[in-house]
């Protein structure tokens, strides 16, 4: 459907101050386009770069100005050619103006789709925003942005701004950065703009949602507090594991020139009375069987359907309890989001009141949920208040599924405090261990938290998409080496270890690894046969060899 298609224009800063992170920008944008080729092959993408010595855009030709901005790729259906362009971005030689680039990108979308197109239109800006924006000919810079923002709202254009800082901004003019941040905040306040600040290559790779998943409700109905009190809510999935794309069987029997060929493979199964028999058992004569001890109990489809539990659809409150009673390891499966029915002010007020009361009293709610009519299982879970800090976003709840007794796995381990004093760490050892743990903290003092989940891409999926793109050009291509940025996700940071070598050395000094002579002497006993082999010495030697091989294979 046209409404589900996205028209995207990438606005990329390639000026000198961005050169050090352009490899990560190339990886990010390539991954975005690779996922579109898999999941959204009808989306259309354009590419604009700014900070180039050359100028090539329609507004320059029509009105003048808009210098150092180049339309690298006009808007078209995403294909492998655009991916190739993104993998080798030009390096600019002048400082770019991100505001001019936004106007050029808007102009491309408006001219291409005008007011007739009702699908999604989006700009994606990636810059460090440390260079000055030129003054407006009429009014202030803020006035100019207000006009641009109003036009974006009128044309239904959304924007995503990725601001790369960190080491790039160490020598930058703070006054200019603050001014640019203020200008970008106007877009966030006046339009549907999401602004994200990142300070590391890892965060940059996860800054853009490379695959847009349309939110779908799994439940729309009443949250029943009591038979006399019900709140209209919608329930969405908040988190869900991203799986590998489905790999399908493909037939090459149809000629490549046949455009109507589906190349699909249909698999049919036949059940026969016995191997080698030609008599096929029809579906109506088949029945499921379940093992019960040594026998197999046949159960027909009608019996199976009648024995299934068929609860009524609904979400009901069972009780409130202290948050401390629900342990973290009880949480199962995905996380759900409970929100008030959109546009229902009474429901929003009720949800907010209950959520804030629960937060104040440190309580959680236990719910019984049946999402759909005819669902064959009941879910019991915990509802946790989610108080919003943004006045534009209403309060809500997070919901986690809790286990039944059959789902719990108990593992009993002895307490470390029960060990003898000789096995307990002394004061120096404990101090060395504490310093080592603190050294590896993801939230170092005075710095932003590292590896935030919302900014950390899955390295396995990312590498798979990259390899898929390479194979599309060269079917016999080898698996590419692991990208350096992805390596920093899967391996310890070498810079962190080199900077804290003294702490690591102190840990080594406190905990010496020595060979245990008792374990060395007590070798694993050789497995001996109950019957001694009779005959010559050669037979006996053969038995010894066999026993030795058996021990080695354990």
TrEMBL record:
Pfam families membership: Ku, Ku_C, Ku_N
Ranges of compositional bias, category Low complexity: 542-554
InterPro entries noted in UniProt: DNA_bd_Ku70/Ku80, Ku80, Ku_C, Ku_N, SPOC-like_C_dom_sf, vWFA_dom_sf
GO BP terms: DNA recombination; double-strand break repair via nonhomologous end joining; telomere maintenance
Keywords noted in UniProt: ATP-binding, DNA damage, DNA recombination, DNA repair, DNA-binding, Helicase, Hydrolase, Nucleotide-binding, Nucleus
Region (Disordered): 515-554
GO molecular function: ATP binding; damaged DNA binding; DNA helicase activity; double-stranded DNA binding; hydrolase activity; telomeric DNA binding
Protein's name in the database: Ku domain-containing protein
Gene source species: Corchorus capsularis (Jute)
